Amino acid sequence: MNAMKSIAKKTILKPCFLLFTFGIILLAAASLYAAESDAELINRAKAIFGPLPASMPSSENPITPEKVKLGTVLFWESRISVDKTVSCAKCHPLGLYAVDGLRKSVGNNCKENPRNDPTILNAASQISEHWIGNRTSVEDQAKQALIGPPSFGMPDYGSVEKILKGMKGYVAMFKEAFPNEKDPVTVDNFAKAVGAFERTLVTPAPFDEFMQGNAAALTDQQKRGLRAFMDTGCMTCHFSPFVGGQMYQKFGVFEPYQKYTKSQSVDEGRFAVTKNPADKFVFKVPVLRNVAETPPYFHDGSVDKLTDAIMIMAKIQLAKDLSPAQADDIAAFLGSLTGKIPEAALKVPVLPSSE
Ligand code: HEC
Ligand code: HEC
User: Which of 20, 52, 90, 350 counts the most CB atoms within 10 A of its CB?
Assistant: First the structure.
């Protein structure tokens, strides 16, 4: 009986042992293959997206610490709005990744803005600003916001300058930031200071660590999502270190966008800027950094869930149907673009007194 048991054990053990060794070899081969394909994935990603710069400089508005300091303060300033309630920070709260979370932002006297607010993080290196590209730079954007009827709503630039000049604290700070100017308290310098601040708002993320060669910075699902993002063709429009912001494209290449977004009204996009019929429904391809943190999605905030936005993009931009699992993977990859907001930007500054 005992002998029989031991024979049985041996015969069972042998194939088990073989299977085990074979399994080890397979595992080793698989991990070798995975290591190779990680390296290949890193290289492919590097070629399409490239390294995130430390800041977003401009030759017209060099970043200086004094300008950034003033810009950080001005970002919170609401006394220069027509009802004294509107600051940049109202609609771009930095702790919320610089978005208000509304479908459409609300400005002075509760006026609704025509579009959803994009984040100002990683925003300064785009071909233009705003969804339809009607602002040339962050400086141009900041200046025009002051007289934007649904934004600060001031009647003219002169009235903004008058208010700022009435506060001694600001006069001193503008002098420090623009030392060679006789009359530094101007809206152009307001725009330069705020712009310089915005140019520092870069948010390094796990995806950057991955591109620097740390394969473990992304989970397996995020890697699958990155592959799907590239293989599906998302990166033909969403490329550069900012994963967008570099071109204009029609929203709804294959089908009208409102069919899927269920938008209440239809926005003609860049047509409003150029009056060229070819620009109907054309929008700037948005930056996707921190996108997981900035719902609702699209220029009109019509879509709440990131996976829905991803499915819609594949359908109407690329005529491809993603499976829910693929959309989840891509959403996980986009989550790896959630970065670290600069500490300095997260501190609420003390503003000059009203006198
Ligand atoms: C009332 C809310 C509101 C206020 C106040 C506001 N913004 Fe915005 N911001 C928006 C909305 C809405 C958009 C999108 C406008 C569009 O595309 O039509 C936007 C767009 C932007 C963009 C463009 C981002 C991109 O990717 O195109 C930047 C930069 C920006 N705002 C910075 C600022 C700064 C700086 C201030 C203060 C001077 C400011 N905003 C004040 C709501 C606001
Ligand atoms: C042909 C160019 C093009 C392709 C390809 C493309 N996109 Fe887009 N994407 C855009 C444009 C343009 C918008 C802005 C749409 C609008 O007006 O709201 C956008 C918007 C988005 C948004 C919303 C961002 C926000 O802040 O609201 C997400 C998310 C997105 N795209 C992801 C993807 C994914 C994922 C893919 C691949 C499945 C993809 N895109 C393919 C051009 C493209």
Answer: 52
Same domain, 282 and 308: yes
Q: Is residue 38, in this structure, part of any structural domain at all?
A: no
252: CATH = 1.10.760.10
Give distance in angstroms: CA of 113 to centre of ligand 1.
10
- Whether 155 and 161 have beta carbons less than 8 Å apart is answered as no
Other residues' Cβ atoms within 10 Å of the Cβ of residue 28: 10
Q: Judge contact between 210 and 45, C-beta under 8 A.
A: yes
In the block, residue with structure tokens 């006394």: 79
d(CA 27, CA 33): 10
- The secondary structure element, H or E, covering residue 248 is strand 248-250
> What is the position in ligand 2's atom list of the atom closest to the CA of 314?
38
* DSSP code, position 346: G
User: In this structure, what token pair is assigned to residue 212?
Assistant: 């620097």
**How many Å apart are CA 98 and CA 111, to the nearest integer?**
19
Instruction: Kindly give the pairing relationship between strand 282-284 and strand 248-250.
Output: antiparallel
Does residue 144 lie within any of the structural domains?
yes
Angle, helices 324-335 vs 220-232, to 10°: value is: 110
pLDDT tens digits along 290-342? 999 999 999 999 999 999 999 999 999 999 999 999 999 999 999 999 999 99
H/E/C letters for each residue in 30-83?
HHHHHHHHHHHHHHHHHHHCCCCCCCCCCCCCCCCHHHHHHHHHHCCCCCCCCC
201 sits in the region (left: phi over 0; alpha: psi -120 to 50; else beta) called beta
pTM for this entry: 0.92
Q: Which residue has its alpha carbon closest to ligand 2 atom 11? A: 285
Widest distance between CA atoms in the chain: 107
Question: Does residue 195's CB lie within 6 angstroms of at least one atom of ligand 1?
Answer: no
Residues 6+ apart with CB under 8 A from 32: none
